[in-house]
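Changelog-adjacent note: as of this version, every example in the card shows the full chain rather than a window. The one below runs 112 residues end to end.
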Amino acid sequence: MTLTQDWTALNHSKAKGQLLAALRPLPVSERLHLLTQYIEQQVTWIRQQGGTETDLTANRSFLAIGFDSLMSVELLYSLQRDLGRDIDPAALEQDTIDELAQTILAEVFLEG
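Full-length structure tokens:
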């Protein structure tokens, strides 16, 4: 059984790299699940800040949920803060949350 952590709490924290610290000890399959969960929560939180409720699933496209370029920049900032490293902005060109999570994992764990 996987517990759901509230990753949006990191949006009010000055700490960096907490997501990476949580991902490192996990097996690859669990890393993907946790990162996908994190991205889903961040997308929902970012949309709520604009006063918009979000009904999403990991396989829905960013376009279908109304995620715009400013929201993408905010998501990139969150990823960089919580992973404690720079992320290539091109990663956010993925169409879905699942694809983004896979791309980020490859960038963070296969390059370093």
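Structural remarks: The mean pLDDT is 85.
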